[in-house]
Amino acid sequence: MSAREAIRVALQALLSNRLRSALTTLGVLIGVMSVVLLVSIGQGARTEITGAIEGLGSNLLFVLPGDGDFGSGPSRSRFIADDIERIDRQLPGEQPRVAGSAVGAESLQADGQRFNATVQAVTAGYTSVLDRELGRGQPFTESDVVTSRRTAVLGATTAEELFAGQDPIGRQFSIGGIQFRVVGVLTRIGGEASPFGPDQDRTVLVPVTTGQRLFGTDRIDSIFVRASSTETIEVDRSTTERVLGERLDEDEFSVVSQDEIIGVVGDILSILTTVLGAIAGISLLVGGVGVSNIMLVSVSERTREIGLRKALGARTRDITVQFLLEAVALTVLGGVIGLGLGIGGAALVAEFAPVPAEVTWWSIALALGTSVAVGIIFGVLPARRAGQLDPVEALRRD
Amino acid sequence: MTGPSLLSAEAVERVYRLGREVEVHALRGVSFTVDRGDYVAIMGSSGSGKSTLLNLLGALDRPTAGHVRYDGRDVADMGDPELAELRNRRIGFVFQSFHLLPRLTALDNVALPLVYRGGTPRSRRQAALEALTAVGLADRLDHRPGELSGGQQQRVAIARALVTDPALLLADEPTGNLDTATGDDIMELLEQLQADHGTALVVITHEAQIARRADRTIELRDGLLVPEVPA
């Protein structure tokens, strides 16, 4: 039997039982749709988060507590403010090139407005090292830090929440009951909280000395080093490691570049995407079992037809191929419709939900490839059973 | 007689195993031959082994012992593709309960065996049309089996058996589901085709009246042949 003929016969059989075919297809359809949708959400998250990290600038080195093994959980920082100055002194070029911050969450209040924000106690060089621009006012100065002045630079969202519509420069507000004066407001950068930092628009920067007193600590959580160029980044890294190594053990700190963070975060998000896809894959599997089940029913219902076809000259192979094609036609139909709905769903998610979604060519190829594979894998058992039916049994007079 | 017979059965036995202990000897050593153009009736009551014999003659089953040969070739030596080709090219089946596919039109039902033979859909339709015309149903091409009478359905089935131009028509109780008058018409049609095309016709029946029409009658009783009586 020619391939074209076999496809025609398979489609004819499916069309003669439209409702059953549609319901069977539905299982595969939902499975393919969830795979495409969830993978595109995972992929979108990856793009967004790595983009946010890239936005920090490629010449940045991050000094983090612990030995740099992301799997070992958070470590307690042993950095102090003096480390920052000592590193900065050893780096060539225009200073400041090193900044540090300690982070805490506090409740803010101004004119009866309450707002919960991330308070970052930062060194004077923080905004220039991290390339943060101020929309209004000035960053605080070295003398603000030395004298523990109660001045603050607000993130854009924080400024809006506390001083809706008014100019916040020079205004007073309180952090945990202590009065601060606003000296500057950061420009809005947008984006979300990322795995390595808070939402940069919902923050308050205060001088590191003032902030440490507020938190009741003298520690620094992270140190940032700006290399003068991509070429010197490795030199600056070893300088930083050398200076910190004079005071700390090797496993108490690690210096990582932006590329390394993107690599690690990217890996984590790839795993996340894979896990999401695998979970959706389970529903595809269930859809496949449904196809198998219905095909088995179909084989036993059409025993006579199979026997007759054999008596008229069908080979075992012809019958097997016919039923296999029916199964594959069901799953491919489900795959194509599911793909369309998955892409549509991803577009809706990207439009209306805070999670980004990004359909990639490989998730499309995966969905279609899988639906063909599901058809073959779950069609083989019923198709072989059909092919091997004994024509004598199948034609037995009743 | 030159060359091997169209069909020969030599000491054919068929044993069915039911469970571990029980064996049913449906055929216990049956021998006969059918030559080109022969008209043979195989007669027997229910349980005589005639259904078993039909399956063996139709190359749907293989004997436990003995040989069934087509054109001198032993069916036991053929693999699945060869058996399929033998059934497709040499044998035309007519069943008691017609065995038409309900979702296909009369024309598509008749064209069905040709699907396993290649050729264009156009040539298949042409051949099916000619076969349906030969059985007098040229005006029922697009009817489905449900829209046809029993006699008409059996005519469609005969057209389907005829369309491959087989050497042997194997009819299993072809009138069993029809009233006497319609049954006679069907028998006449089969006999006419046998005469016109030089096709061998083997009719399996339990009715002596039908068997008497054949040139030769083979009677089966308890899996053995009752000595042949010329008509």
DSSP summary, beta strand count of chain B = 10
Can you list the strand order of the major beta sheet of chain A?
2-3-8-5-7-6
Largest sheet geometry of chain B: 6 strands, mixed
From the spread of the alpha carbons, the general shape of chain B counts as globular
Task: Give me the strand/helix succession of chain A.
Answer: HHEHEEHEHEHEEEHEHEHHHHH
Specify the number of helices of chain B. Answer: 7
- Strands of the largest sheet of chain B, in order across it? 6-7-8-3-9-10
Helix content of chain B: 25-40%
Number of strand segments of chain A? 10
Radius of gyration of chain A, rounded? Answer: 32 Å
The shape of chain A is elongated
How many structural domains of chain B?
1
What does this structure look like?
The complex is a heterodimer of chains A (398) and B (231). By secondary structure, chain A is an alpha+beta fold. Chain A has 13 helices and 10 strands. Chain A has helices spanning 3-15, 18-54, 81-90, 126-129, 142-146, 156-162, 208-215, 233-245, 258-301, 303-311, 316-352, 361-387, 391-395, and strands at 60-65, 98-110, 113-122, 134-137, 151-154, 172-175, 178-186, 203-207, 222-226, 253-257. In chain A, a hairpin with a 2-residue loop joins strand 2 (98-110) and strand 3 (113-122). Chain A is elongated, with a radius of gyration of 32 Å. With 231 residues, chain B is an alpha/beta fold. Chain B has a single domain (7-230), classed as Rossmann fold. Chain B contains 7 helices and 10 strands. Chain B has helices at residues 50-57, 80-90, 106-115, 121-134, 150-162, 180-197, 208-211; strands at residues 7-18, 22-34, 39-43, 65-70, 73-74, 91-94, 168-172, 200-205, 216-221, 224-230. The two termini of chain B are 21 Å apart. Classes of the chains: A alpha+beta (398), B alpha/beta (231). Chains A and B meet through helix 1, helix 10, helix 11 and helix 13 of A and helix 2 and helix 3 of B.
